[in-house]
Model the fold of this input.
Amino acid sequence: MLDFRVKTFLTVCRTLNYTRAAEELSLTQPAVTQQIANLERSYGVKLFSYRHRKLSLTAAGRIAYQGLSAIAHDEELLRHKMSASTSGSAIPLRIGMTLTAGEYLVAAPLGRYLREHPEISVTVRSGGTRAVLDMLDANEIDCAFTEGFFDKSSYLWQNLCTERFVAVCAGNHRFAREPRRLEDLLGETLILREAGSGSREVLVHALAARNLSTDAFAGTCTVESLDIIKIFVAEDLGISFVYEAAVEQECIDGSLRVVELPDTPMSHDVCFVRLKGSLHEKEMNELFRAVSRQRLSA
Done:
């Protein structure tokens, strides 16, 4: 059973705030402070530092967080497996997906895999890249498929695929001059995802590489739903940047078209991410290989 001091430590790591951690754990703030102090004495190191009124992990604290997160995840998964073995219930699997990766790249091959493995009961959580990784850190999911940027040194990860990231416009949209590079689109209204979205991060990085930002466009419109973005673009309210797989059908039926930018090609990896040091890495690898095979066989 996981030491309650470890649970307290992981909660403080996630919130970086003793008061919020105390509220989540239904403890007093002095009790949380005492438990962290006891853990620091046990390890013989400082786990947190407090500078400029801001709490942060020390180098030793980051190592502890990485290792203890994996232990907490393993303990939870082990508990579920033991329960399933005695009750005959399905084996739970909790997967996080960023919205574009989940709906257009992972859902179908994952569905085919689950059809072949009825002994698995899956729960799927969706959100932006940061939200999904926060779920992973908080042991709310077992693994994640994400197309956004993340600190690859903090997790185990594998590249599921590399997808083209393309500009799209309405099927009947006409440019004054057919664009060839990203800068040629700055006179258009840009319809983009909300802050924290993996797709938006990919675009922001691509623009920054050319010393540009979203403010360089003639106008911007922020929409949290990819489906609504596609409708707005089809109605010629502006252009957008999306993964090509997400607009495949709309390009076939002619409501949208890809704006080819031969002088500014863009692509990004979709990755399978999980915590380092897990005892269940073999099962995670098997899941990744199975989903990869299902994608290739479709």
